[in-house]
Design goal:
With 195 residues, this protein is an all-alpha fold. The chain is built from 9 helices and no strands. It starts with a helix and ends in a 17-residue tail after the last helix.
Length: 195
């Protein structure tokens, strides 16, 4: 790819990332093109579908989270690795509003541009979960699919303005529910005030 074409693609991705952070994954492609100072046809030439654009935008993050799982697997205790990866994964998914809905759908849709990345990410989390289960520090009645669903649920909580202040507390509740008492992450923190 020529240097100017790569620069244009990088610029489109940067603008798309900002737009999705602000407005969510349903932001208009026309709006992204306008913000980038190009026509819609130019955007579609580089990224023919919304999913192709999202795949290009999110692939680096998927790869980083997958690599992180591998690093944590060798450098942390099984329960520490699982909770750390889960926390980072949830934090990342809350950056792009609405992305968890697309990720959950892409897992089931083999034709989705996001399918391979999402399956790889789910497998990375499942390996950490399996390791913690083998060590006796995570409950054995959940699997990688359940863990992926919990990431989506926790990310959704962070997207809700009325629940966002409780997101950290609820993360700790969910993490404690995944881990057995030997691997509990309960910090003893007081939950935020609420009704």
């Amino acid at each position: 790819m020529r240097a100017d074409a790569r620069k244009n693609r990088d610029h489109l991705l940067a603008v798309a990332g900002t737009a999705i952070t602000e407005q969510g994954v349903d932001v208009s492609l026309r709006d992204i093109a306008r913000r980038a100072g190009v026509g819609l046809a130019t955007l579609l030439r580089h990224y023919p579908t919304r999913e192709a654009l999202l795949d290009a935008l999110l692939r680096t993050s998927f790869d980083e989270l997958t690599a992180l799982a591998g690093e944590l697997e060798t450098s942390n205790s099984p329960e520490g690795a699982l909770v750390s990866w889960l926390r980072d994964c949830v934090a990342w998914t809350t950056e792009y509003r609405g992305v968890t809905v697309l990720m959950a759908a892409a897992i089931e849709d083999t034709e989705s541009a996001l399918h391979a990345s999402c399956v790889t990410l789910r497998a990375a989390g499942a390996r950490l979960l399996t390791r913690a289960q083998a060590a006796g520090t995570a409950r054995t009645d959940i699997d990688g699919t359940d863990l992926f669903a919990l990431v989506a649920a926790l990310a959704w909580l962070g997207d809700q303005p009325s629940l966002a202040p409780r997101a950290d507390h609820l993360f700790d509740v969910v993490a404690s529910a995944i881990l057995t008492s030997a691997g509990s992450t309960d910090t003893g923190a007081t939950p935020p005030p609420g009704p």
